[in-house]
Every structure is written in structure tokens, then in C-alpha cells.
Amino acid sequence: MTTTYHFATVNDRQLFYREAGDKTAPTIVLLHGFPTSSHMFRDLIPLLADKFHVIAPDYIGFGQSDAPSVADFDYSFDNLTAHVAGLIEQLGLTSYILYMQDFGGPVGFRLFTQNPGAVKGFVIQNTNAYMAGVGEMPASIFLPLWEKRDATSEAAARGFLAAETTKFQYQVGARNPAAISPDNWMVDQPLLDRPGHDLAHLNLLENYKTNVAAYDSWHEAFRQHQPKTLITWGKHDPFFIPAGAEAFLADLPQAKLVWLDAGHFVLDENAATVAAEIKATFAA
Length: 284
Prior knowledge:
This protein is α/β, with parallel strands linked by helices. It contains 11 helices and 8 strands. Strands 1-2-4-3-5-6-7-8 form an 8-stranded mixed sheet, sandwiched between helices. The model has no long low-confidence stretch (mean pLDDT 97).
């Protein structure tokens, strides 16, 4: 199946997205993490496109979407979600499954709570909705930033934007680090390094505390609506640790949890496994 590449104007901003598959098939919306883009799904999309209509957007400030300055755009998870929701509306999608990784969770769970009837299921991959899932390393950096943003807490958070951290996020926990394509960080890092764009990402890292504040309301929505859920989790992730995967089972007891021999990013080595699990869960 051919992947095609598009731009849509949403709230006066250009939003890039990848698309594949038959538009009459069930839709799956792939929501990427930090510091990447829809590029992270380049291997997964063709594996899903025989059974699903696949949409993979880049958030504003990421990938090939517009990246306005912080003076011209409010870099918050509410605003990232508003633009993805605008794309979904523009494409006429009334029913879809959400695949969420890292930042994709806060975007996807907002979409779900805003319109739970449209969401036919979750694929949860190393994204948090529980504080139990936050590893010691990110907690030591982000809790101080959330409590008080100043020069000291900002300096620690800037380490998350550095080239060595981007590479580490992709390689950590991999079965074979040599199997992880350097295209990942070679695509991501120049976008992170755009002049002035560090402030956009620092604003989002600080704004992440609004996700934590929403956890209880998300849990209530999970319990109330019980979306069909597949959890595919890299069990060696030091950022979003295995306890975060297990925590979903309290509110979504029918979820299927699949452990992957991987870290924070799983698709370079496990795209075929993840695709097979998605098809077995949602295309049977």
C-alpha cells in the first residue's frame, strides 16, 4: 500500500500528515511522541494499510508541520490537541482507533475525553496516564520544572533537547542498538535545533504538568467507557517504566498487555509484531 503525504490548513496553520489504506476501512490515527514526528511510523504504516485507513499527523512544532515562534503560538497540549482534532474533523473521521506513544497519550486521551463515542479503541505504547509510570530520571528533571520554572530547572530540562539524549531515547533498551536506524535522530535533531525552537519545547515540557492534573478525569473516562485496549510496551524504557503499563489494567481490566524486548521507541525492531497485535485485536 502506498503512503501519501499531505498538508491541511487547521486554525490557520499548516499541519502535515501521512495517509495510507482504503478510506472505507476502519481508521487508525497514529499519534507520535517526543522528540519525533509521524516519521516514527514509517515502517508501521504499510504494515497496517491492508486492513486500516491510516492517518499519522505531525503536531504543530514537530516534523513537517508549521513551527511558529512562542510569541505566535501557545505551545500547550490543549493546543496541540485542538489542531489534531481540527484535522480529524476536516477529514470527516467520525470513528477511529488511537495509537499513542509518549506525547501521543496526552493528545489522544484529550481527544477521547472530548468525544469518547468516536474512539473505538486504544493502542498504548510507552505513554503515561499514571504517575506510577514515570521513571526516576524524568521525575528528577520535570518535577522541579513543574514546581518552579527558573534558570536551574530550565537548564536541566534543556538536556532533554540535546543530541545525545535524542539518540539515547531511540537506542536505550533495544535488543540490538545497531538495528536502530540513525535516520531517527538525524531527522529529529535538526528540527529541535531550529533557532528559538527550544522555548517551544520547554513550554511543552512545563505544560506536561497539565496532563498529570488530568489523570483522574482520564481514569474516570476509561472506567466509564471501557474502550477496547491493546498495550504494547517496551519493558526496558527508563522514561516510562513498566509500572505505567500495568497501571492501565486497574481501569481497563480487559486490556491486552504485550511486553516487548525494547525501550522507549519500539518500532525499528518490533513493527511487524506491533502490526500483528493491532490486527489481531481490531481487524479480526
